[in-house]
Design goal:
Elements (H helix, E strand, L loop, with lengths): L15 H33 L3 H4 L1 H24 L1 H20 L4 H29 L3 H33 L3 H4 L1 H15 L14 H24 L4 H23 L7 H5 L1 H31 L4 H7 L1 H19 L5 H18 L8 H26 L9 H38 L6 H37 L31
Helix pairs in contact: 1-5, 1-6, 1-8, 3-4, 3-5, 3-9, 3-17, 4-5, 4-8, 5-17, 6-13, 6-14, 6-16, 9-10, 9-17, 12-16, 12-17, 12-18, 14-16, 15-16, 15-18, 17-18
Length: 511
């Protein structure tokens, strides 16, 4: 008798593809929110009377809560159950979004953003770990993570388009309210459709010292980079945050090595492939944040694009990510070792970034920016897909939540570093250019041109660093990730019966 799609994989949940729709929808909401609020920020600041000095806290409040609580959120998913955590995260995120949209002042807005971060820290690792334990067949896993990777990579650019439309044609408050239908549909779908595999919970007592040390350490690290952007790298407070973060995270690692039930079992980190994924992915996100940041400024400030036009200008990159993730990554994931997808993927993205180092004030969009975005999208989509899949491959289901949280943590920390580091480099290059050329600009038109040229000089200086970072990411992926292509059938370690220290049962490529 021929196999139906739902019985082709022995013991698989027949509703798993429907479940993927709601998991992907939730992930899209979280990723959209990361960029959609940036578009709305100027309008919200004016309406709510937020000072320039406090404006950054609309972004920082979310980043600190989300980044600091991710590991805790992943552990809660393992303890409570991923489906329950997923639904609670969605409902809480929707409520916090409603609060942000209805904000009447600065305090209410900042509180809403912090709450979004708290519930996002529950939602994000629960979504990825649900995907990891639901799709255990190698070919199906490749397809599922291809879709998830495309959303994770391209959702931020979609946020720019949606944010531009909502801000320009409706009101900035809708950039918050738009999360509510996403969350309601995803929560209802999850409640009725998702069936979490049995035996995957980790009911061990909660590692309270680990929770405090990891949360405080990650908050200090993210805030340190955020503060460095505004106060400078040599600022006493910035240095103090970095030192405090190093001490707290070192204490966290020491604690996890000795406690009986660690928040983050070190075996999750010390696995060669997962360690390579976390490191290369975190570095690549630094470069990606640089692209969104500087290309958005370039298109709006230098080229004079509206927010909506700017959003549409990112469409080639979204298309590239979808093709790279769902067509290249998905089709090749079960045929070639992951490093032969990730390393070339990062290098392809680096080639796209390299094109953007040639930006000038009068650069043609079609002649340079469009092909650069296509290369970036193809490269990142191809690399992100195996990275998302491999990051949870072979993990005991009881550790799937914290392993998934580490993927999000590496991206969150990478984003904080990218924003601060690349902004600092750009600002320094712009200042140096203006110092050298301002004296020669004697008319208003000449002065404006020098200002624009100085901005572009800053962007290209930072983008050169992003190119180098992507090359390093490719090197790390090629050197550390030695897992071969998955064999046919179920992926070892993904089912309920995997042991805590099970190895990934796939061929290994010799160095």
């Amino acid at each position: 008798m021929p196999k139906t799609p739902d019985t082709a994989v022995t013991g698989a949940d027949p509703a798993r593809w429907k479940a993927l729709v709601f998991i992907a929808l939730a992930q899209l909401m979280v990723v959209l929110d990361a960029t959609i609020v940036n578009i709305a920020l100027p309008s919200a600041q004016q309406d709510l009377g937020i000072s320039d000095a406090n404006r950054q806290w609309v972004i920082t409040a979310y980043a600190l809560a989300f980044g600091g609580l991710l590991l805790f959120g992943g552990r809660i998913a393992d303890l409570w159950g991923r489906k329950r955590t997923f639904v609670v995260g969605l409902v809480g995120f929707a409520a916090a979004s409603a609060l942000g949209g209805a904000a009447t002042g600065e305090a209410m807005m900042l509180g809403a953003r912090a709450l979004q971060g708290v519930f996002g820290a529950l939602l994000a690792p629960a979504a990825l770990s649900l995907l990891a334990v639901t799709f255990t067949d190698a070919k199906e896993r490749a397809k599922a993570f291809g879709i998830y990777g495309a959303i994770a990579g391209g959702g931020g650019a979609v946020g720019l388009i949606l944010g531009g439309f909502l801000t320009e044609y409706l009101d900035w408050r809708w950039t918050f309210y738009v999360n509510i239908p996403f969350a309601v549909v995803a929560a209802l779908g999850a409640y009725f459709v998702i069936r979490e595999p049995a035996g995957g919970r980790n009911r061990s007592p909660l590692d309270i010292p680990g929770v405090f040390l990891s949360t405080l350490g990650l908050v200090a690290l993210v805030y340190g980079f955020t503060r460095a952007e505004t106060e400078g790298w040599g600022d006493t407070g910035t240095i103090g945050l970095f030192v405090g973060s190093a001490v707290l995270l070192a204490a966290f690692v020491g604690t996890e090595a000795f406690v009986k039930h660690p928040l983050l079992p070190l075996r999750v980190l010390t696995d060669r492939n997962r360690g390579g994924i976390y490191l290369s992915l975190g570095l690549a996100v630094i470069a990606m944040f640089g692209l969104f940041l500087f290309l958005t400024y370039y298109l709006q400030v230098v080229k004079g694009y509206s927010p909506v036009m700017t959003g549409f200008a990112f469409l080639p990159m979204i298309a590239g990510m979808i093709v790279g993730s769902t067509q290249i990554g998905t089709r090749l994931m079960t045929r070639v070792p992951a490093r032969l997808l990730m390393a070339p993927g990062f290098l392809t993205a680096g080639a796209g970034m390299l094109l953007l180092t040639q930006l000038e004030v009068d650069t043609s969009y079609a002649g340079l920016i469009l092909p650069a975005q296509l290369l970036l999208g193809l490269g990142m989509g191809t690399a992100f897909m195996p990275a998302m899949s491999l990051a949870t491959l072979g993990v005991d289901p009881k550790d799937a939540g914290v392993a998934s949280a580490m993927v999000n943590t590496s991206q969150q920390v990478g984003g904080a570093i990218g924003t601060a580091l690349l902004n600092t480099i750009a600002a320094s290059a712009t200042t140096a250019y203006l110092t050298d050329h301002a004296a020669g600009a004697t008319t208003p038109a000449a002065q404006k041109l020098v200002q624009l040229q100085g901005m572009v000089e800053g962007y290209t200086a930072a983008i050169w660093w992003a190119v180098g970072i992507l090359v390093v990411s490719a090197g790390i992926a090629f050197a550390l990730i030695n897992a071969g292509k998955p064999g046919p059938g179920a992926v070892a370690g993904s089912g309920a019966g995997a042991g805590a220290d099970d190895e990934v049962k796939i061929p290994v490529v010799a160095h």
